[in-house]
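Deliverable D4.2, example record:
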Amino acid sequence: MGAGAVRWVADAEGFAVRLAAVRREDAEQYLRLSRQHDARVRLRTIAAGAAAAAGLAGAAGLVMAPEPVRWAGAAVLIAVLGVAGAPSDRPLVDRAVVATRASKLTSDVVVRALGSLGLAGVNKAMAKG
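Output generated by the structure prediction step:
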């Protein structure tokens, strides 16, 4: 997450486009892209700095808070990070126990079950067929 944030702040996705303008020696397009890059980086740096300051202030507040507030803050943080890191194609929480499916009860299954009991009368009837 940290490397992605740095790439976002530095406007790394626009690097290839600016490089292509340099290779084509298109000074006008490069200057336009460079101004756009500067504006993006300036705005994104301010936003990232504000987010970092808010995070540090929140962390400092949680460190100095009473224990129940720290536990609540930790629970909220875990929930937020869980939602943020959840895969989009699967639910965040799934059942803990997977239901097993019982096989269909047939006459062959019943006969084998009775045969495994070891009863003399049942074994005698099974031997006859």
